[in-house]
Design a protein that fits this description.
Blueprint lengths: L6 H14 L6 H12 L3 E3 H8 L8 H14 L3 E3 L6 E3 L6 E5 L5 E4 L3 H12 L10 E4 L2 H6 L1
Parallel strand pairs: 4-6
Antiparallel strand pairs: 1-3, 2-3, 4-5
Helix pairs in contact: 1-2, 3-4
The structure holds zinc ion (2 copies).
The site of one zinc ion has 7 residues, from α6.
């Protein structure tokens, strides 16, 4: 038994969200959610499909995409608006990102200052803010060291 989040607890969280939204609980949704909930990271549909095929033979990429989009609507993951393949953040709390234009890595930034300032500027201009995303792009420390 994992002390942090036992499978039953992970399942219960998704079941509550699906039922709350009037959606069906399926073995496929539960299995994909278990994989997503296992590690904090930024996952692509392709990577999730590779990990899930052992448990879910016959699973297709469009299904993984639609399930990740569903999880995003339910607030289980957050879609990161970064260049390249769609990335889903298993940490749904708002935070900022850095993405590398060379290797494509997506990393968390330990600040919300840019997002807070952008939100204030939008509100000061009379806009109603729904969400704010800050993605800093450039060459990551690892790639810069290789150059
Ligand atoms: Zn890089
Ligand atoms: Zn993140």
């Amino acid at each position: 038994m994992d002390a942090v989040a036992p499978t039953a607890e992970v399942d219960a969280r998704l079941v509550a969200r699906l039922r709350g939204a009037g959606l069906r609980v399926t073995p496929q949704r539960l299995a994909l959610h278990r994989i997503v909930a296992a590690t904090p990271r930024h996952v692509t549909a392709e990577a999730l499909l590779r990990e899930a095929t052992a448990d879910l033979p016959g699973l297709a990429l469009p299904t993984v995409y639609s399930t990740l989009e569903l999880f995003a609507e339910l607030g289980v993951v957050r879609r990161v608006a970064a260049p390249g393949a769609a990335r889903y953040d298993t940490d749904p709390t708002p935070h900022d990102h850095f993405t590398c234009t060379r290797c494509g890595t997506l990393l968390d930034l330990d600040t919300s200052a840019g997002r807070a300032a952008a939100t204030r500027a939008a509100e000061a201009a009379g806009h109603r803010v729904a969400s704010a995303t800050v993605v800093v792009t450039g060459v990551c420390a690892g790639c810069a060291a290789d150059a």
